[in-house]
Amino acid sequence: MKADVQNRHAPAIRLRLVGGYEEAIVRNLGILTILLLLSGAFEQARAEDASSSESFKAASELVSITSPDMMQQLTTGLTTAFWPLVQQQASAGKIDDATVAKLRGEFERLQLAFATDALKDAPAIYARHFTVAELRQLIAFYRTPIGAKVLHEMPQVTTEFAALTLPRLPELQQHSREAFAGILREHGYLK
Fold first, then answer.
1. Gap between the Cα atoms of 112 and 24, Å rounded
2. Which of 45, 58, 70, 79 is the most exposed place for a label (fewest CB within 10 A)?
3. Residue 31 pLDDT grade (very low, low, confident, very high; cuts 50, 70, 90)
4. How far apart are CA 125 and CA 109, in angstroms?
5. 41-50, 94-103, 148-157, 177-186: lowest mean pLDDT where?
């Protein structure tokens, strides 16, 4: 069916581009766009070079403030929320309690190691999305009593939200399948 989609739409695209002037205009606009983007990128790169180390330093400080206990809390909370499903499957498979306990410990260890490793990229991501001034404002916020409370409570809030959302996922999947099938039927891809 994918080939039908491409064949059905490709002639219309070709018709628009055929003709010497249209093709030349499109090509020249493409070249001009690339040149403008590149010139802007060079200017931005020069501006970012001056503050990138300062930005990365501020972002690293933000990550060090926001993540010490959060990863452990989040891992434990999410394990608590999702583990009953794993345990239910283990019980159905007649896996003994000692093995299930060992599986849970390994599950938590792997999650924490994964999250900790992924966190290494966080400063660069923060630095791309926030200015140095904004990073400093975030750092100042998280050093306030309410900021500290946010850091302490958010893993639990996230865990509770995940626990409420998990049972509703099958319903979302069913609705998505039905909606997609309707659209595909409407466009002639399903009967």
1. 55
2. 45
3. low
4. 25
5. 41-50
Domain assignment present for residue 89? The answer is yes
pLDDT, one tens digit per residue, over 60-96 is 999 888 877 777 777 777 787 778 888 888 888 888 8
Instruction: Examine residue 6 and state whether it is found in any structural domain, yes or no.
Output: no
* CA separation, residue 178 to residues 165, 166, 168, 175, 187 (Å): 20, 20, 16, 5, 14
Query: Is residue 25 one of the residues assigned to a domain?
Result: no
Are the beta carbons of 81 and 159 closer than 8 angstroms? yes
Domain tally for the chain? 1
pTM: 0.55
14 domain-assigned: no
Range of the domain at 93: 52-186
- Check: CB of residue 86 under 8 Å from CB of residue 21: no
Of 134, 164, 110, whose CA–CA distance to 59 is shortest?
134
Concatenate the DSSP letters of all residues of 22-84 into one string: HHHHHHHHHHHHHHHHHHHHHHHHHHHHHHHHHHHHHHHHHHHHHSTTHHHHHHHHHHHHHHH
Q: For the segment 17-29, what is each residue's pLDDT rounded down to a tens digit?
A: 334 444 544 455 5
- End-to-end CA distance of the chain: give it in Å, rounded: 13
